[in-house]
Structures are given as structure tokens and as C-alpha cells.
Amino acid sequence: MTALDIRHYDHHQAADIRQLLLDVYAEVYAEAAKTDPFATVDRFAKGLDGWSRRDGWTCVVGYDQDQSVGYAYGAPLPAGAPWWGGLLTEVPADVVEETGTRTYALSELMVRLPWRKTGTARQLHDALLKDRPEERATLLVDQEHPKVHALYESWGWQTLGDLRPRIPDAPLFHAMLLDLPQH
Ligand SMILES: CC(C)(COP(=O)(O)OP(=O)(O)OC[C@H]1O[C@@H](n2cnc3c(N)ncnc32)[C@H](O)[C@@H]1OP(=O)(O)O)[C@@H](O)C(=O)NCCC(=O)NCCS
């Protein structure tokens, strides 16, 4: 395995990499999609298009000798973000108050099987969040995937509470937060 080449994209390039992102998703979530309607490529494509349409959308794709190995993407939450709408845990109102510049949402992180446990996932995660101007990041992790939850905790993320997005078939998630270094 050679050194990972990480390339950065923004919403202007979303159409160029859309098929690549869908292909990697289809491979990574093939097993899950057999039984979980939330994991189908069609549903994911709708979500991807919604996210990548946003001005602030950013994406990193990892390449190993020009082979795509995984990616991560997200965008800042807008003021009054629906992101927190499905939060089931009571928290002080200011914790979920969004200004449009306060929080970067890490929407997706996935790595193809041969590149798991190689540090690739962490490198993509770090590259996506590096130099972000927001004070914090947030992500949602499926409560049925405790090992992924533990992985994020080992990377410094803290659990805020339970959240079920108001989307059909959405699972119950842990909502997590990570303080971002201030520049
Ligand atoms: C999450 C991910 C990027 C982490 O990659 P990594 O740092 O190389 O770590 P691993 O793949 O070893 O994952 C850590 C553990 O979580 C488990 N895990 C990973 N994804 C999982 C999933 N979707 N469902 C259930 N368990 C999962 C792994 O089996 C592993 O368990 P193990 O230590 O017993 O082998 C990678 O596992 C992945 O792409 N998973 C599928 C997509 C996904 O679930 N993304 C996270 C969305 S919040």
C-alpha cells in the first residue's frame, strides 16, 4: 500500500465525483442495503444531492495509486438547522443553537474494506476537519454500531444524546460533538 493521496472537493465539483461517491457507497453498504431500506443507494443519492448542493459542502476522497479507497464529506449547519430536530435527549437550548458558522456536520465517512484498519479512515476524517473555521463538529452514529461509536470516542468525539432524524426508516443515532481547534 502506498501513501494515501487525499484530494479536496467543494460543491462546484460535486457533479464530477457524484458517480464515484455512489459507487463506493454501493460497495461499502452492499450487505446493509439487503435488509435496511435506509441503506439503499437511491436513498443515499438523495441525501448526497441534498448535501452537495449546499455552498459550504466539502469532501475529501482518498486515493491509493489512483484507486479511490474511501471518502468523507459534510457542510456547516445553517441557522435553525433541522439537524437537531430529531434530538430526543433534553439539552440546554444554547447547545443546539446554530448560527450558520458554529458547527460543521460530518455527514459521511466510509472506507472500502481493503483499506480498513490502515489509518485511512482517520486520515480522511482529519483532512476533512483540518483548518475548519467552525468551533465544533457534529456527526450521527447508528446506535446499532457500538464499535463505530467507540471508534469516534477514541478520536475525541463526545456523545450529546439520542437522535432520530425525521426521515422515513431512519435509525436511532448517537449525536456526537467534537471541539475543533480555534485558529
Ligand atoms: C467507519 C469506518 C470508516 C472506520 O474505519 P477504520 O477506522 O478502518 O475502522 P474499522 O473498519 O476497523 O471499524 C472499527 C470497528 O467498527 C466495526 N464497524 C465498522 N463499520 C461498521 C458498520 N457499518 N456496522 C457495524 N460495525 C461496523 C468494524 O467491524 C470494527 O470492528 P472490529 O474492531 O471488531 O473489527 C469503516 O469501518 C467503514 O467504512 N464502515 C462502513 C461505513 C460506516 O459505518 N461509516 C460510519 C458512519 S457513522
For the record, the CATH architecture stands as 3-Layer(aba) Sandwich
The average pLDDT is 96
Discrete helix count: 5
Low-confidence stretches: none
Count of all domains: 1
Task: Give the topology string: H per helix, E per strand.
Answer: EHHHEEEHEHEE
Shape: globular
CATH superfamily: Gcn5-related N-acetyltransferase (GNAT)
Q: According to CATH, what is the topology?
A: Aminopeptidase
Sheet with most strands: 7 strands, mixed
Q: How are the strands of the largest sheet arranged? A: 1-2-3-4-5-7-6
In percent, how much strand structure appears in the residues?
Answer: 25-35%
Explain this structure to me?
The protein is 28% helix and 28% strand. It is an alpha+beta fold and 183 residues long. The chain has one domain (5-179): Gcn5-related N-acetyltransferase (GNAT) (Aminopeptidase, 3-Layer(aba) Sandwich), CATH 3.40.630.30. The N and C termini lie far apart (34 Å). The chain has helices at residues 14-28, 30-35, 41-52, 120-129, 146-154; strands at 5-10, 58-64, 67-76, 103-111, 136-142, 158-163, 173-179. The protein binds coenzyme A (COA). Coenzyme A (COA) binds next to strand 4, helix 4 and helix 5.
